[in-house]
Amino acid sequence: MTTDPLAFELTTFHNDAGYDELVLVHHITFRSPMFSGVAHVGYLPGERIVGLSKFARVVEHYAGPARLQERLTRQIADLLELRLLPRGVGVVVDAAHPGPGGRPGIRTRTTAMTGSLRTDPAVRAEFFAAVDGRYASSSRRRAR
Description:
- It is a single chain.
- By secondary structure, this protein is of the alpha+beta class.
- The chain has a single domain (8-131), classed as GTP cyclohydrolase I, C-terminal domain/NADPH-dependent 7-cyano-7-deazaguanine reductase, N-terminal domain (GTP Cyclohydrolase I, domain 2), CATH 3.30.1130.
- It is built from four helices and six strands; from the N terminus they run ββββααββαα.
- Strands 2-3-5-6 form a four-stranded antiparallel β-sheet.
- A hairpin with a 4-residue loop joins strand 2 (23-31) and strand 3.
- Helix 1 packs across helix 2.
- The model is unreliable at 138-144 (pLDDT under 50).
């Protein structure tokens, strides 16, 4: 299995409706040879959008081969950034690493942020609140 982002098929669509609010798919479960957990993947659409089922496929694609959790997190963000050209991407991976020296119940969280999700404190806070289940729907619209 290749993990080259250009080799991964990700069908995108023009954002005809001009949707500009946070899109988040959370609690995507995965298992890799080295760890297992959940991924939370979100983006602020630009001109392209993607079907929501594709987020799980992207996570599965990169979780398959043995790799570091940090690399998995970054590769998911990089692929979405490359293919969607969004205003921002956010990826959070929460995982358990069983094995020699591993302690039950200990989890590791890694993050990768781009664009507004990296640079705008309010947008970043909204993303993490949504990931952590503290999100209240907002009617405000972001400046483009």
